[in-house]
Amino acid sequence: MSAQRSKDAVPSTGHFEFLAELVRDLRAEGFGVYSHRYEYLAFGSWMIDVGTRHRRLRLSYDGKEGSLQVSRGMAGAGTVSAWEDIETSSVHGVTPDLRDRVLSLVRRHLA
Fold this sequence. Notes:
The protein is an alpha+beta fold. Helices cover 37% and strands 38% of the residues. It has one domain (3-110).
């Protein structure tokens, strides 16, 4: 494996390890993951839709700006017709603290 390919794999691996832990924690609290997108070339930005069949949160992490945006939506017929932005906060990278923060946001806005 070339040195560049190995170097590129490190951040991606970290993201998916973070995601796997988050999904396990969400499932333990009765929430599902409905969609996910990860953009390695956009500073590791990602978006995840979580919640229940009818109530969803979209959490969007902007890796360049270091921000986490939270939007709420109601699902009907399997899709969310409109998202309402409810808060944006600064974050300092993808860390275990961020996972705890995401879980806290989900509990607060979907409980």
